[in-house]
Design brief:
This protein is mostly helical. Helix content is about 70%, strand content about 0%. The chain contains nine helices and no strands. The longest helix is centred in the N-terminal third of the chain and has 50 residues. The termini are close together. It is a multi-pass membrane protein.
């Protein structure tokens, strides 16, 4: 997630360079043909292009609003995941109590499993959501965090659970199933009452809701006609701009056309890069930072002093 108020111009030029080069060369070519070869028929009415500009601005605004809604919904989902993770830690610590003194160590072991397995779930969900889909642009230079898969999760669960975890199509969901099994066993042993079992189950249900809502955003891209036609319309509009100004502005048409085209091009790219918030890019939701916040909160509540080191912003970007 970009947190700096100033964007890096190297990044901006990198992602817009091909379209900008096309618009620059076109503007220069139109000027040369009109001024040097007196091809006055190249000029087109300004009013027609102005009408197209208005329509394109409305179209891009509609697309960007929907793209931002997807990004903001993703951030709200992970904000709720933070909140309910704290609730889960409190419930596990306060609600699971031994029926007999000799069961004390066993309940401590159960609390440990439930809390650290939840940390594993959060990190597993982060990795699971950041897997590339066939409809994503596989531009590896954009990826801001090189993932080592699920290797870091191994320290939070047992070796047997981890081995089975790696065989699952949906590893985070498998961890939720193990959580349910453990609290069911705690009820049978009398360590939690039926009421407390219901409360713990409701919290687990919230986690699965958060996962499902995240998967919905991940697996359902913004309708592709919006992305496709926005690129087409921006290109058509940018191609016509130099022809609309050449008659009255002469060489000034070159920088003015490039500037106008850059504005529309930037609007198009903002929407395109915002619509998919789980792709491990610099403008995505900062899943790594949020996951470490959850890990830190749970460990602190449980009394574990081995807190994770949260990454600082690098070039204005938090992972």
């Amino acid at each position: 997630m970009i947190v700096s108020r100033k964007l890096n111009w190297k990044h901006i030029i990198y992602y817009t360079r091909f379209k900008l080069l096309y618009f620059i060369l076109l503007s220069v070519a139109v000027y040369v043909l009109h001024a040097k070869f007196n091809l006055s028929f190249l000029s087109i009415p300004f009013n027609g292009v102005a009408t197209l500009s208005t329509a394109l601005a409305i179209y891009l605004g509609f697309k960007n609003n929907n793209a931002y809604d997807r990004w903001w919904e993703a951030r709200k989902i992970w904000g709720l995941l933070v909140n309910f993770s704290r609730v889960w830690a409190r419930e596990v610590i306060t609600m699971i109590t031994p029926k007999n003194p000799e069961d004390y160590l066993k309940t401590i072991e159960l609390q440990n499993r439930l809390l650290y397995r939840h940390i594993a779930f959060v990190h597993a969900l982060r990795v699971f959501l950041r897997q590339r889909k066939e409809y994503n642009d596989n531009n590896v230079r954009e990826i801001i965090e090189v993932s080592n898969g699920y290797a870091d999760i191994k320290k939070f669960i047992s070796e047997e659970e981890y081995a089975e975890f790696l065989t699952k199509q949906n590893p985070p969901n498998f961890l939720m199933k193990l959580q349910g099994d453990d609290i069911k066993e705690a009820v049978e042993k009398g360590w939690i009452t039926d009421y407390r079992f219901v409360k713990l189950s409701e919290t687990l249900g919230e986690f699965q809701n958060h996962q499902g809502m995240s998967e919905r955003i991940k697996n359902t891209p913004l309708p592709r006609p919006y992305s496709f036609f926005s690129r087409v319309f921006v290109t058509i509009h940018g191609t016509l701009i130099p022809f609309a100004f050449i008659e009255e502005l002469g060489w000034i048409n070159i920088p003015l056309s490039v500037l106008i085209n850059f504005v529309f091009l930037a609007l198009d790219y903002v929407g395109e890069r915002t619509e998919d918030p789980f792709e491990n890019r610099m403008d995505d939701v900062s899943l790594t930072s949020i996951s470490l916040t959850i890990e830190e909160n749970i460990k602190e509540m449980y009394g574990d002093e081995d807190l994770p080191i949260k990454p600082k912003a690098n070039l204005g970007v938090i992972m």
